[in-house]
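User: I've been trying to design a sequence by hand for this structure and keep getting stuck. Would you show me what you'd pick, starting by listing the structure so we're on the same page?

Assistant: Good idea, let's start from the same input. This is the structure you sent:
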């Protein structure tokens, strides 16, 4: 159940949220860092343990 929920969230994130892959993470604003952290947590949980 938990893994499938995070898989759905990961798909939604990919469609809606911006990608910061080509940007320097040290120069991001606080809200951009929050988005990166959120995407990391969702991706980590969707891949499972």
């Amino acid at each position: 159940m938990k893994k499938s929920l995070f898989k759905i969230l990961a798909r939604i994130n990919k469609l809606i949220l911006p990608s910061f892959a080509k940007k320097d993470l040290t120069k991001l604003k606080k809200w951009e860092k929050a988005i990166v952290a959120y995407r990391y947590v969702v991706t980590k949980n969707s891949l499972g343990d």
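That's my pick for every position. To get oriented when you compare it with your attempt: The chain has two helices and no strands. The radius of gyration is 12 Å.
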